[in-house]
Structures are given as C-alpha cells and as structure tokens.
Amino acid sequence: MSEQEKVLENIEDRVRTIGVLTSGGDAPGMNAAIRAVVRRALSKGIKVRGIRRGYHGLLKEEIIDLTARDVSDIIQRGGTILQTARCQTMRTVEGQQKAAAICKKYGIDGLVVIGGDGSFAGAQKLANLGVNTIAIPGTIDLDIACTDYTIGFDTAVNTAMEAIDKVRDTSTSHERCSIIEVMGRDAGYLALWCGIANGAEKILLPEEKDYNEQEIIDDILENKKRGKKNYIIINAEGVGDSLNMAKRIEEATGIETRATILGHMQRGGSPTCKDRVYASTMGALAVDLLCEGKTNRVIGYRNGEYVDYDIDQALSMKKTIPAYQYSISKTFAI
Fold it and tell me: Is residue 13 predicted with pLDDT exceeding 60?
C-alpha cells in the first residue's frame, strides 16, 4: 500500500457513519443525491443513516439505517424518500444544540444536508457546534449564489415550459390574454427561463421591482390591432397577484384574460437526465469531501466544474438575474 493510500485509509477510518437529510422544499433529483450518498459511502465501508423530515425529524430522532437496497429504484422518482419539513426550532440556539447532541448520540461523523439556503443556515450552525457538514444545493428556485446549478431546477423549468405551451394553445384558440404564474419565491429564474423558452410577450420578475401595468395594457391592445391571437405574460411568484391582475387587464382591454397558477406541480415529476446526473455527482462528492476531512462546505457547479466553498463564504454571496438574458428577452417580444 502506498503512502497516499495509507493516508486516505486513515482519513476514512475517522468517518464511520454519515447522516443524510433533505430539508425545505422538495426538488426533483433529491432522491438521486440520496442514492449517491448511500452507495458512495457504502463502497468505502461507511455506514449511512437517513434522517426523516429534515431538521424536524433530526430533533425528533427519526433516524434510520440505509442500505443499498433501500435506495434501489428511486433515482427516477420525484420528491424525496426521506421526506422533508420546515423547522422553526432549528433557528433557535437550543434547537441547534439539541440537533448537534443527537448527531453525536447516533455516532454521525458527517452530515450531508440537501436543500436551499435556509437548510444551509442550519448546516452552518451545526458545523459551528462541531458537526462535520457538507451541504448540497437542492431547490427549484436556482437562487443559491455560489452555484450555477441547483438540484431540481432543470426538471421544474421543463415542467413549467410544457404546461405553458399547453396554455398558449388554448389561449390562441380563444384569442385570450393569459397570465401564467410560476414558482421561485423571491427569485425570478424560473420566470425568466420560461419567458424566453415559451416566447412570452411579457416577463414579470421580482428583481424588476416595479412594473408599469398600463404599458402592458397598451401593448396588449397594440398586439391585438396587429392581429395577434394571444398574449402570454409569465409572472413570477415573487410578484404574484395574478388573479387580480387578470381582472384589471380584462376590464381595461375588453379582452378575455385568464390567470393560471402552476403551483406545486413544478416540484413533482420524474427528474430530467441532467438533474439525475448532477445530483448523483454532488452526492458522491459530498461523501468524498467528508472522507478527505473537509467540513462546513457547500458543493456547487461553476463554469462547467463541480466545486466546493466554505459555507460562510457561500451564504455571504449575492446572486442577480443575468442582465443580458433579461435584456434580450424584451427584444424577443417585439
């Protein structure tokens, strides 16, 4: 055995049990990441414990052992087999200390957290209390600043795109204006991508702050004069008010206007190839980082490569809508 192999073996000896949980909103591809964590760890002789219902389940000690068979036939399934929940208690010092103590009680040498920025904040607190943590970005919102990719976004945006295509068909048949609201919380990435992919006439983003509804009304009327049979507005969840907006536009234009809120259908469904492959790679990398003795890290994907950041650095980063993409989306609607 070479010296390098001996060093690696000694490091892996320090990590005997890895815990894995999914937290916050579910995202297609989370199961692929769970599967990768389990099988990568088992291949290294490391035991894996699954924590049900995120931090809420951790505090309730809903902890199970996971085998290779437990993660069979899950890579193609949406959602998360470990379930997920939001946990206000984890925002308190007492909750964080209890969670760290439970990790120690169950012999968890390293914890893999799959979720969004709120989940990362919990991982950060646990790391400060001595729990070796690696965070994987899992959110359909694509709003984590340290990465160009988050698990679930690709599936969600394709689900929304296909639904919007269908709405446009019926909107054309009835010569309607359609306002279609997509998810994303306070981030407009889903809306921007769908707006470009679906050829929307208008995209409303929370990052845009204020929009001029009268300008939209004028544009709808101008398009009608030119013989256009439909008008599609993609509205981000962070802007909202789609139902009332539809009523106001119909009253002002005399054109039938319908609001469609796609809602949680965007969270479900079988993950795309990209979400399966990227999530699997990130899950395996999380195990490798723990075996290398790294902790308090967030895995990301930047400029075509998988990378990792200190979690404090990752949470301090800011992310904005790509200005060029948003700019060209307006010219496409001419």
Answer: no
At residue 4, what is the residue type? Q
What percentage of residues in the chain have a pLDDT greater than 90? 92
On the question of pLDDT at 168 being above 70, the answer is yes
Q: Is 50 exceeded by the pLDDT of residue 6?
A: no
Checking if the pLDDT of 3 tops 60, the result is no
pLDDT at 8 over 60: no
d(CA 65, CA 31): 16
Interval 101-135: pLDDT, tens: 999 999 999 999 999 999 999 999 999 999 999 99
Pairing between strand 297-302 and 132-137? parallel
Which secondary-structure segment (H or E) carries 234? strand 231-236
Catalytic residue at 219? no
**Which of 71-85, 89-103, 206-220 is predicted least confidently?**
206-220
Strand partners, 257: 177
Active-site option among 109, 117, 141, 308: 141
Residue where the block lists tokens 């795309």: 272
| φ/ψ of residue 213, rounded to 5 | -65, -35
Backbone angles phi, psi at 103, to 5 degrees: -60, -45
| Residue found under tokens 């907006």 | 245
Q: What is the SS3 assignment for 309?
A: strand
* Neighbour-count burial for 214-238, b at 16+ CB within 10 Å, e otherwise: eebbebbeebbeeeeebbbbbbbbb
Q: Give the mean model confidence (pLDDT) for residues 234-255.
A: 96
Contacts 24+ apart (CB under 8 A), 47-50: 47/16, 47/17, 47/18, 48/17, 48/18, 48/19, 48/20, 49/17, 49/18, 49/19, 49/20, 49/106, 49/108, 50/19, 50/20, 50/21, 50/81, 50/82
If you ran DSSP here, which 8-state letter would residue 148 be given?
S
Which residue is it, tokens 């609607």?
333
Give me the helix-helix angle, 273-291 and 153-174, nearest 10°: 160
Beta carbons within 8 Å of 98's beta carbon, 6+ residues apart: 59
